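User: My instructor asked us to take a sequence, write out its structure as tokens, and then describe one feature of it. I'm not sure where to start. Here is the sequence I was given:
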Amino acid sequence: MRVGLDIGGTKTDAVAVDSAGAILARVRRPTGWGPEAVVRSAVAAVRSLEAEVAASSADAGPMRCIGIGIPGQVEPGTGRVVHAVNLGVDELDLAEALAPLLAVPVSVENDVKAAAYGAFALSATPGSMAYLNLGTGIAAGIVAGGGLWRGARGTAGEVGHISIDPAGPLCRCGQHGCIEALAGGGAIAERWGRPGALPVRDVFDAADRGDAQARELRVGLARGVAAAVRVLVLTADVDTVVLGGGITALGERLREDVSAELAASADASAFMRSLRLSERVEMLPLGSPAAALGAALVGAPEEALARG
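Assistant: Let's start with the prediction itself. The structure tokens for your sequence are:
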């Protein structure tokens, strides 16, 4: 049995996976704040998962390894995560902290890259794939040849801070008009400036009612996502771009807006039309265990995906 954890800012999603890659059990637990609480949350999620597997009478065998997807930067070749600001973690060697507590090998990967790996495993589409995460920020993970493509320094797919409009809104990175400044949930909420539990949804609802500011923000979001899709296809030539993350809860409204932006660029350019971008975009189903599943697969790298 392999275990995968997707440690998010509010919850930890955990799955147990058998040797064939099938999900045996899934649990969700709250995530604590700060390094020590993150470690306790991970241990609690694993114990809950073990109990769930035992209660189901699944013939899973002993836990063999644990893979973890977590926000922030993961130093290549280590289990050390830095700048996981949404978890209150400045730096933490998560593998070193968890391995003695759980008595199995622990691997750590950036959460978006883990989700890319899991999305590819769940997809019926062969070939290469980019997973574009639309959440508080914007980032992508790329799967090619059945494995994650990290690039020379681990930054492959970091499209959020590509500037597409030098006169656009200021991004937290210091540039203007970054894809993330236009399409990131955090940037949209900040520019919207009105209280609400789901600011991006509120923006879309207000745009449907004709609110001028909301319409501008909504157009910018679609423009940013469409630009990210073009960048991923033009640089990595992936077969498919899968959209995931919290913003995809908008469903068809988001899909239609992005498709319209891609269609506009196709209308203006025979070259862009030849890429058939709209046909290469998919959306990850809501509630998908892609990130936790991908983490489980990352935890057993010798069993890399064979498709592609």
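For the description part of your assignment, you could build on this observation: The chain has a mean pLDDT of 93. Try explaining in your own words what that tells you about the chain.
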